[in-house]
């Protein structure tokens, strides 16, 4: 009987495809090898997720800041700008009467606004200049190796950690006209009692002393941190060249912390423009909002509060707020121009 053999290239009598050769291992036949391209979709998905993770993770980390900024800073800024273009009262914020730039023109012609602006400027100068000079000298002393330096650094920061309300109340009792300690000490020196709250310049000096006391130590620690970042080799080279301590301070220390000095000037300027708590508590009552009987120490912050929460004119209050914002922008632009001129000349 004749038998048929499979033709070359066939897997058998009923197969039209070649049969894959089987491999045997030590435990028996091995499973067939996976087809080419079977794992590519899974690998592509993992690569896509990896790329998305790398690109989206930074945005996810910074997203909380932008959400909070948009809710509590950007939206109030836009809403305040919208209010400044209307005549609206505090009790009826939903009833707005379009006024355009009428609030701004009225504010430009308001003597009380210019008085508040001048008071803000004078109190800012009286408080900022001595504050930064004292902070610079204090940081220079703390930069030396002293016994108990950690204690002095903590003591310098204590006024900053004190509540503005508590500090203002203490200084109000110190500057009280009839029973204050300041007038008591001046009386022993032969001076008459000074009405610190009723007169313009004494009131501004008293308010400035509160600001100086609270912020000198904070700025001193900023200067100290910048001073300790200056390489000691610069001081050694200056000492070898015969420079005195004062020359090292003016020619090594000051140029080395110039950026920190500019930062504290900008920070103190912003704080002076927004000054509110110290004069409000110093006035001890209704006079605190108006900045005294004759508005002798009313700042822009107090004017904003008076317009919005005493007179209930939210449109005027929003206009004052935007005037403060534009003033800060102008100060920032001038600071950048001065810094650019200083870098060109140096």
From TrEMBL:
Chain segments annotated as transmembrane: 56-78, 116-142, 154-175, 205-226, 255-276, 314-334
Predominant subcellular localization, coarse grouping: membrane
Highest taxon of source: Bacteria
Keywords noted in UniProt: Cell membrane, Membrane, Transmembrane, Transmembrane helix, Transport
Keyword Transport on entry: yes
Residue stretches making up the ABC transmembrane type-1 domain: 117-338
InterPro entries assigned to the protein according to its UniProt record, in alphabetical order: ABC_transporter_permease, MetI-like, MetI-like_sf
Coiled-coil annotated spans: none
Membrane topology: Multi-pass membrane protein
Location in the cell: Cell membrane
Region feature (Disordered): 1-42
A Pfam family matched in the record: BPD_transp_1
Keyword Translocase: no
Similarity field: Belongs to the binding-protein-dependent transport system permease family.
Name of the protein described by the UniProt record: Carbohydrate ABC transporter permease
The species this protein was found in: Streptomyces desertarenae
Lineage: Bacteria, Bacillati, Actinomycetota, Actinomycetes, Kitasatosporales
